[in-house]
């Protein structure tokens, strides 16, 4: 018997060794795919400080805009949903952590079984009942009840680190969910700022149109008087009148756009429609003294989408490692302890106390395709996550570089447009004087008025684009979520 035991023991150890070696063969390192390396600077520009490090209340000097953002951070529905996604990731993390610990469950069970008279159990139980070594409580009936009251446990010992790797994956995804919330926040902050500056622009355009409407109304009154005096014809009256109605139509369109933008802001703020309080006009809004962008490495450390993509990449790499570790043998220990009897009257008798311990190594041998499929799936997901990270880094760098160049160009255009607008405003005054003196036609007056209107509106739009490019640069540098 001892010889047989030693023989079986050696055979089991040999089988375990073969399974372990075969699993280790699958653990050979995979070819490493490296992420992109960003340039050292943005468009050969390097600043020690980046506006992305500035707090929201510091970067935005308009107190009304800051108040709107504060309200959105407290009541926005997208942010609230992002918090719930964090809780889902936290629950998954708890589930993976629990897998590292033994599971213990209480059990109260009962059953009944009838043994056939021509079976080993039936013959043995029947014969046992005639033994002088048992008392009446130990005599077995047929059918035979079975009662158990106690606790059972199961514990997979994490020999190779498979469960720890799964926990690491869940932890990385939990951290990625927090970055996803930060990404939602920074996008909402940027969208509120964009709509706010658009509202200021529309207000300024409405003021410009109203001022021009009054001038055009005076022009209509003047041309009517000149027609009555014989110095103008009906065509001139119609032209000036049509221009006035066109300006009034534009005013109504702007009022409609203002209402739509206010509704969008209120939706982001999680409240029903109400007026949006505004600060100084768009042309009088304060501009930062210095716009620093830092270096790309700082941007990568601050942008939530880049950090989220990196964490998800590491999580998928952990999933791949776990899928490869699944080929190795797993050790499971299943102990139990409790009261076990086939008579309820003696269930709580100290003699009914039973306990046991079973441990076993299991490893897949036949039909390993599901594990191989899981490994290939995890490898494809990890590779896709790497490409997504590279794409996110490219997008982040290009967004920053584009917004930086847009700011520079818009500043140049704004200076030229201011000079142009001043010249055209002077031209309107001159054309009116020449028309009254008979040295200019009404068409020249209409053209001058139309040109100055378009120039003033365009100047306002350029200022809006400057602020929107500034907000986009702030967001692209990782600002707006703290």
TrEMBL record:
Keyword set includes Signal: no
Predominant location category: membrane
GO CC terms in record: plasma membrane
An example molecular function term from Gene Ontology annotations: efflux transmembrane transporter activity
Location of the protein in the cell: Cell membrane
Protein name, per record: RND transporter
This protein's UniProt keywords: Lipoprotein, Membrane, Palmitate, Transmembrane, Transmembrane beta strand
Transmembrane stretches, start-end: none
Annotated family: Belongs to the outer membrane factor (OMF) (TC 1.B.17) family.
